[in-house]
UniProtKB/TrEMBL annotation:
Annotated InterPro entries: BOP1/Erb1, BOP1_N_dom, WD40/YVTN_repeat-like_dom_sf, WD40_repeat_CS, WD40_repeat_dom_sf, WD40_rpt
Main location: nucleus
Localization: Nucleus, Nucleolus
WD repeats: 84-125
Record-given protein name: BOP1 protein
Organism classification: Eukaryota, Metazoa, Chordata, Craniata, Vertebrata
SUPFAM superfamilies assigned to the protein according to its UniProt record, in alphabetical order: WD40 repeat-like
One GO BP annotation of this record: maturation of LSU-rRNA from tricistronic rRNA transcript (SSU-rRNA, 5.8S rRNA, LSU-rRNA)
GO MF, one annotated term: ribonucleoprotein complex binding
Species this chain originates from: Stercorarius parasiticus (Parasitic jaeger)
Amino acid sequence: QKLAWEQQEPAERKLNFVPQQYRCLRAVPAYSRFIHERFERCLDLYLCPRQRKMRVNVDPEDLIPKLPKPRDLQPFPTTQALVYRGHTSLVRCLSISPSGQWLVSGSDDCTVRFWEVCTARCMKTLPVGGVVRSVAWNPNPTVCLVAICVEQSVLLVNPCLGDKLLYGATDQLLESYVAPEEERVQPVQWVTATVEEHSKGVRLVVQHSKSKGLVQRVLSHPIRPYFFVATQRYVRVYNLLKQELTKKLMTNCKWVSSMAIHPGGTWPLCSPRSCRILHHKKALRSVAFHKHYPLFASGSDDGTVIVCHGMVYNDLLQNPLLVPVKVLKGHAITLDLGVLDVLFHPTQPWVFSSGADGTVRLYT
């Protein structure tokens, strides 16, 4: 066995020593390499490089940036003022008129409701025959039109609210359209509303083909000819003049649920469905910037709306200053869903929120 052990390679040996037998414990000698290994250890300690490290006593509070107090950042919404009741299912989307007088909401109960902002009175209910995915009021104050996204169609509706001259002029503008002699091929179909649809306020129906990708949100740049498209994980920026892809922004999250563009156009804000930011405990559903005040809001499935003061600087190398100033509560969590959309008033520091509990709430 000893001969076989000696003929083996050192890496193949099960034991790195040869066992020996002694008559008693007192006859067992000391470790033969004890002094040699102790010398090598002392030599390592002697030859190792040494340097003196200066210990700095730093207060942890000094490392945290000094943020302004919330009362110094007023005005911002702090109190729930009105509750708009009437929908029988979750309210997915909101939009407000340019004047700030009228509010439109779309719901899974297959209806669109028009509200008077200051009184929470439902002025008109429009059944659309499908789940309403998005609504948008025309930002041009001289044209009274609301776009409603239902399944694969977009309904252009004249709500006929407010000034009669205004919404009457909108109908005259649509009726004065003359089709060109040679129709160009378009990716959508423009269909004139029927008599029954016209009586409800529908003027045109834009029919789309089925989408091939998961597009979450599209927005236009407020100043420049750029077009933002938010997909599940990326934000693509297109130049409309050159008709080409300019940038592809990484969101660092698994699912983008909403997007908002700063009024200056320098900072896009995305809300991730699966991440936690801004002290929310659950997934975010919507984000929004105010057009005039340095405020933005985020709505989450935890049933809260967090309002933050966001100061954006002209120097793009300097990060924006984000200060949470208020947590607004009021929505009841329904089917594990909370706040689905948030929207700022165009002129006042007010914020609207729609939830899965079927209500729309105004915080002032």
